[in-house]
Amino acid sequence: MAALRRIHSWVPLLQRPCTRSCQRAAPVTRRLLHTPPRVAAANQHWPRSTSVLQLRCFAPSACTLKSKGNFTNGQQTGLTEEEEDEDFMEDSEVDELFQQQIPEGIGDGRQRVFIVHPDVKWGRNKQHLTTAELMMAEAVGLVNSLDNWRVVDKIILSTKTPEKKRIFGKGNFESLTEKIRQTAGITAVFVNVEHLSALSEREFEEAWGFKVLDRYSVVLHIFRCNARTKEAKLQISLAEIPLLRSRLRNEMANLDQQGGGSRYIGGSGETLYEVQQRLLKEREMKIRSALDKLKKKRHLLRSQRKHKEFPIVSVLGYTNCGKTTLIKALTGDSGLQPRNQLFATLDVTVHAGQLPSRMTVLYVDTIGFLSQLPHQLIDSFSSTLEDIKHSDLLVHVRDISHPETVNQKANVMNVLKNLQIPDGLMNSMIEVHNKIDLLDNYESTEHNALPISALEERGLDELRRVVEEKILTSTEKHILDLKVNLSTPQLSWLYKEATVQDVQVNADEGSAVVKVTISTAAYGRYRKQFMGR
Ligand SMILES: Nc1nc2c(ncn2[C@@H]2O[C@H](COP(=O)(O)OP(=O)(O)OP(=O)(O)O)[C@@H](O)[C@H]2O)c(=O)[nH]1
Ligand SMILES: [Mg+2]
């Protein structure tokens, strides 16, 4: 009983009563996954006021999902009112959920980060495509992309035992701990591995007395800071669930040591741990269901786009390679904001641009890729990336000035492989070598790659030309100049069945030369109807 009282002293009651499925949990919990008391005592920098996870129930009636479903560049997708009414979670509800889940110890505040990169010498965890120095440079880039975060010191330490709880051997671990203790002003330690186990995290926090981060938590925080739309926020909330789960395990292990975590709560027949796990599961299902609804909506948007016959060109590539800058240059869309920051773009946005024949295409700006991006994140963002599969053409942008450009390409190709992009789409992909302005007299050694500078708008005409050529092939369309007799319905037929780009009228002859983009099938019908063949 004493242990339970202790829990209650730092577990404030639910602020408002739960409804429906969560009612059983009502007497127990509001404050969950609080900083374990022992670690908290060692770490004075952690904010105390925010809870890691304040699980609350979602009244089903309030769970409506509203998606604006509009394109940028002023193009509405035209969802009907009934479709809007099918919405599932209110914006405010998503925002609230998003805010509740801000991980403790990361928050909005300043962070002065010590980075340690474990350099695996051999075995299956060894990185073959890169070097420890470049991996460290990427870790520094991740930290620096966050406002108010800076790197105070960094170290590359070799290890033969990356799978062990402490990752490093005894000697290296002790010297690392010594170095961290001697470095002034640290608020967090970033261990540059994909994902630390809950046990390792706890072990490190106890040894060093600081918040410990891994690649997953840092990338997630960057995503969090850059999330603007409901879908991005929901995806991040979902990606945070494994973190919350592992913290819950840590916390309960801590409580168990004090004899409290596995006790039954009131007459519910559930232990505190079980209740919290269940609430977490319910939250996860709620988010997944909301995301599913958004996905369905996305399908609708996709079919509407198809219906409008605007070909779709997805622009993809490693983070910070210049995707947004390129789309801005191709479309003149001043609303786009390229930033020298990793994961500046988190939401798929669509921007209309014109090709040389004046055909309109929609460029899709996508989320950037990153090496060793934790799989859970990929899962959470897979629906965003799924759009890529339904494009008519892919443009792979590479930052050719980057020292890791070859590895970045390998990484992107790997992610695309996992996304199971159709062969035809993969084979027609255009590779663009961007940022050539940063290199002297750049000449590509790779066949078919197009050198450009999105920033200086160099090489864009050739790119547009190649995009048009490939789009015409992939959509089985042709650009034709057709002579029409203005006294027949030919012109109105073309307006209906094809995309008319230009009409040159010859009033004396009562005819016109019409430039159209027309599908093979439509041209067959046209010939049959008006040319008798
Ligand atoms: N010198 C140079 N810089 C460029 C070029 N293209 C983009 N940049 C810069 O590269 C940085 C990243 O550009 P973005 O367009 O935001 O890159 P992104 O690929 O959209 O990045 P994420 O959305 O974060 O994945 C910005 O500082 C751009 O100004 C280029 O051709 N030359
Ligand atoms: Mg971008």
From TrEMBL:
<feature type="domain" description="Hflx-type G">
    <location>
        <begin position="311"/>
        <end position="475"/>
    </location>
</feature>
<dbReference type="InterPro" id="IPR025121">
    <property type="entry name" value="GTPase_HflX_N"/>
</dbReference>
<keyword id="KW-0342">GTP-binding</keyword>
<dbReference type="GO" id="GO:0043022">
    <property type="term" value="F:ribosome binding"/>
</dbReference>
<dbReference type="InterPro" id="IPR027417">
    <property type="entry name" value="P-loop_NTPase"/>
</dbReference>
<keyword id="KW-0460">Magnesium</keyword>
<dbReference type="Pfam" id="PF13167">
    <property type="entry name" value="GTP-bdg_N"/>
</dbReference>
<dbReference type="Pfam" id="PF16360">
    <property type="entry name" value="GTP-bdg_M"/>
</dbReference>
<dbReference type="GO" id="GO:0005525">
    <property type="term" value="F:GTP binding"/>
</dbReference>
<dbReference type="InterPro" id="IPR032305">
    <property type="entry name" value="GTP-bd_M"/>
</dbReference>
<protein>
    <recommendedName>
        <fullName>Putative GTP-binding protein 6</fullName>
    </recommendedName>
</protein>
<dbReference type="GO" id="GO:0046872">
    <property type="term" value="F:metal ion binding"/>
</dbReference>
<dbReference type="InterPro" id="IPR030394">
    <property type="entry name" value="G_HFLX_dom"/>
</dbReference>
<dbReference type="GO" id="GO:0005737">
    <property type="term" value="C:cytoplasm"/>
</dbReference>
<keyword id="KW-0547">Nucleotide-binding</keyword>
<keyword id="KW-0479">Metal-binding</keyword>
<dbReference type="Pfam" id="PF01926">
    <property type="entry name" value="MMR_HSR1"/>
</dbReference>
<dbReference type="InterPro" id="IPR042108">
    <property type="entry name" value="GTPase_HflX_N_sf"/>
</dbReference>
<dbReference type="InterPro" id="IPR006073">
    <property type="entry name" value="GTP-bd"/>
</dbReference>
<dbReference type="InterPro" id="IPR016496">
    <property type="entry name" value="GTPase_HflX"/>
</dbReference>
